[in-house]
Design goal:
about 260 residues; mainly alpha; Leucine-rich Repeat Variant; DNA_alkylation; DNA alkylation repair enzyme
């Protein structure tokens, strides 16, 4: 990508009254600004490489993560200023996720997921936002967007909705996701406590893993190993005992991933 391309700012938006149509008009304006800006920085070679990386599932503009986040931040910042917004609220976020996921290029999906993830991590949304998370996990699904929710924001979301402790209501929903026919919901349930350390509900973690231990899917097996490896940083003894109890049920991949921290 030419060096000068990296210096071009995102599309500036003049200060204006709320767009006609309320949230719908505002969201359409933001999506169009993101599309214009991303298109101007398209890199065909990187786009082809990225498409191969996801096995041809999605086309790309060819924007690597640092540049994509920089451009998206500029466009969203300009949009907020134009509409007098301090933060994207949950109503706009819900519509923005849906609108961006309807676009073809994968970078736009990342923006939608990251906007929603930011609200989850900051504790700016409640339990009624879970359907938006579910949409983000089950639509245009691949590990890269799913983990923006599952690995990056579900743990702080559980704590925010529970007033500092994992929300019982959300965990009850995770019980359902853990046995869903949708593998990405199951991956999310397995990883939802990834950052909870001593607040991890071990009964649930064990239940989610055991109920998915025989799954043949790579991403489920990888999630099991990842969840155990992360908890081993807090309580390696528990993970060793878990592996002893369930090693015959777990895949070699799950066991190998779970044991990485234990060998240090």
């Amino acid at each position: 990508m030419p060096p000068q391309a990296r210096k071009r700012p995102g599309a500036a938006l003049p200060v204006r009254k709320p767009a006609k149509g309320g949230h719908i008009g505002m969201v359409a304006e933001l999506v169009a600004a993101l599309q214009r800006t991303f298109s101007r920085h398209r890199n065909s070679k990187d786009a082809a490489d990225m498409t191969r990386y996801v096995k041809g599932k999605f086309p790309y503009y060819g924007l690597k993560a640092p540049l994509r986040r920089q451009l998206a931040g500029e466009v969203i910042g300009s949009w907020k200023h134009a509409h007098g917004q301090q933060e994207i609220d949950k109503g706009v976020a819900r519509q923005l996720l849906s609108a961006l996921y309807s676009c073809e290029e994968r970078e736009l999906h990342y923006v939608g997921a990251e906007v929603c993830s930011g609200l989850l991590r900051k504790g700016l949304v409640g339990r009624d936002f879970l359907p938006v998370v579910k949409h983000g996990v089950t639509t245009k699904s691949w590990w890269d967007t799913v983990d923006i929710f599952a690995a990056s924001s579900m743990s702080p979301y559980l704590l925010a909705c529970g007033g500092g402790s994992p929300s019982p209501e959300l965990l009850q929903e995770m019980d359902k996701w853990a046995v869903s026919s949708n593998l990405w919901l199951r991956r999310t349930a397995i990883l939802c406590q990834l950052k909870l350390k001593g607040q991890t509900d071990l009964r649930r973690l064990e239940s989610y893993i055991v109920s998915n231990a025989s799954d043949k899917d790579f991403f489920v097996r990888k999630a099991i190993g990842w969840a155990l490896r992360e908890y081993a940083k807090h309580d390696p003894k528990w993970v060793r005992q878990f592996l002893t109890r369930h090693k015959s049920q777990l895949s070699a991949l799950s066991v190998r991933e779970a044991s990485l921290h234990l060998s240090k």
